[in-house]
Amino acid sequence: QEIHIKEPIEKEVNPRLLPGELLLCEASTVYKYMQEDGSNRGTYGKLVCTNFKISFLDDDSASDDNEPQFKNKIVGENDITLQCVDQIYGVYDEKKKLLTGQLRKYPEKLIIYCKDLRVFNFCLRYTKEEEVKRIVSGIVHHSQTPKLLKRLFLFSYASAAPNYTDGRNQTVMFETLEDWRDELERTKGNVKYKAVTTNEGYRVSEKLPLYFVVPICISEESILKYEGRGIPIWCWSCHNGAALLKMSTFPKEQDDSTSQMQKAFLDGIYKTISKPPYELLKLDDLSSSLPSLQDIQTAYTRFKQLFLIDNSTDFWATDVKWFSLLESTNWLEIIRRVLKKAIEVAECLEIQHTNVLLIEESATDLCCVISSLVQVMMDSYSRTKSGFQSLIQKEWVIGGHGFLDRCNHLHKSEKEEAPVFLLLLNCVWQLVQQYPPAFEFTETYLTVLSDSLYVPIFSTFFFNSQHQRDTNKSGESLKTQSGPFRFLTVWDWAVQFDPKAQAFLNNPLYAEKPKPDKSQRKTARFKHQRQLSLPLTQAKPSTKRGFFREETDHLIKNILGKRIGKFINSSDEPPNSLREFYDSWHSKPVDYHGLLLPRIDGPEIKVWAQRYLRWIPEAQLHGGGTIATAAKILDLMEEVQSLQVKMDEEHSQAVSGDVHSVPMLRNSARLSSLFPFALLQRQSVKPALPTSTWKDLEDEDDLVKRDDEFVDLSGDML
């Protein structure tokens, strides 16, 4: 086959190493294929592996001329952190084989599939045999084999890097008793709930945080009795006093006497916090009302395969059956079920004024998803950037979600792996794209947050619990100092992005909360902003027959029945209350600072296009997509700001100070919908009839029918 070669680099290019980063192995004269078409176009360079990343260096790596507008300072476009590697395949005589462990034979091509859905193709035919052995075995060993926690790059970086922190970070970390008391006061939950210090020194449980909040009537003895199990832990209080709580269950396999004691203990706990008709409590066992973690993992594994595209031919082959492939993954259906559960909880809190207790075995997986979603929907503070970050800290990082196990960062056990945090981000994205002015952050913010799961210089997503992080904090730093490690937090965005790039994380059309003293003037502006706002994907009019009306009576009974009404007889509540709540809310104008309910009718649950399609040139819209809209809006904003400056100068005869800077997206026609993650790429031409899918069509009549379904993917998937 003909290979279109970009000449090998003449000057020596060395990788940019972070503090604590060590070069482990390298190979020269490696040929990297361009992914955008089926040809063999590409470039020569050096492939290196460090204790942090795999990196391809070509002559472009040495120059800063072509730097993208949205550049990550830690991970470049040809860098793959070791934690971001999903699977590695070798190609032997045109056959792909999964590479794991020791290799007897070394491949002529290397394909690396990444967890952020990039695909890298490297040709090793022109590389020295010794270098091939070294680089392939090095990459497989360092990215695919089990490792010890302390061998993560997180520790190397923390011991060698300067202790830099951004003092302007407003995220509440929930590491102190004061943080919890402030949150109780903010939500007015301090009347019925208290922050406790019972777990100081982790004497109750290593799974619980140092400080947490429980109902005032719960005694310290109760908390200590079963290591915190069976204790309702406070998540958030609604404006009407109803609260969202979570609880970890007892192990299922117990002898009868132990089970009886635990049952009596639980009954006592419930009676202390459920006092009808003043204090009502509703239990919801998420393990029976939502998909299992295994189901979620299976669905996501199928779903991501749709986007790990090797070449243009594969892309167009899947285009014909795109909708059936997408449906068969079940991923969008899981997102719908989770959003529906959050609506159900919101209805209990908002309309029924009932406390909701979420129950799960560890209360650190689906409990985190539902409690976070409910707060995003019901508390406008959680829709600001600092509020959302504080929410993730509270419910996930300090709350004890097992990031290390669920992301399988140490490659210890695939059985524990499940994209629970990604599920939350996918659900929040549905809300962001349905109600853009309600959020201070953008979909780009959510995308880079999902990428940060795999960047091991931040401690945020690399521990299973606060206890695990605290016990591994102690250690001797390299030469410079001894004492505890000082880990970075992912919320310090200046570590990854310069101010110009950070501006892409902030929503310029965010409808800020009106101030009470200027309510009339602000209200008018607020309405005007709503008129300006455009959804990130084409809005579809809401049908009269909504999602709930299309569901069968059996399913509705099932949904309502899953909420275990132990202290409320389920017959006491109207069977249509959930439907009425949903339909009634959607029939009124949206208050961007009040309750938000996602639209969950069939077409409304969409694929998060920016995250999943950003590396696929065939899916781009040239000069279109969200970025074209953003470019026009930002141009208008710049014009308004400059006029404001001129007016200020004329009135005050003084030069105004800083104008809020936004990145200018001039010549939006030269950009594509892949921006800001990829610049404009060559147009991929859709084949007339070359794919295997077309060849399999049996006759002309069938072809005519299928041709109607053959619609451009860039329209369908966005």
TrEMBL record:
Compartments, as annotated in UniProt: Cytoplasm, Myofibril, Sarcomere; Sarcoplasmic reticulum
**This protein's superkingdom?**
Eukaryota
GO cellular component entries: membrane; sarcomere; sarcoplasmic reticulum
The entry's keywords:
Cytoplasm, Sarcoplasmic reticulum
Q: What is its main location?
A: cytoplasm
GO BP, one example?
phosphatidylinositol dephosphorylation
Cited CDD domains = PH-GRAM_MTMR12 (cd13348), PTP-MTMR12 (cd14594)
Q: Can you tell me where the transmembrane regions are?
A: none
Coiled-coil segments on the chain, per record: none
InterPro entries xref list: MTMR12-like_C, MTMR12_PTP, Myotubularin, Myotubularin-like_Pase_dom, PH-like_dom_sf, Prot-tyrosine_phosphatase-like
Q: Which residues form the Myotubularin phosphatase domain?
A: 174-612
Query: Can you tell me which family this protein belongs to?
Result: Belongs to the protein-tyrosine phosphatase family. Non-receptor class myotubularin subfamily.
Under which name does UniProt file this protein? Myotubularin-related protein 12
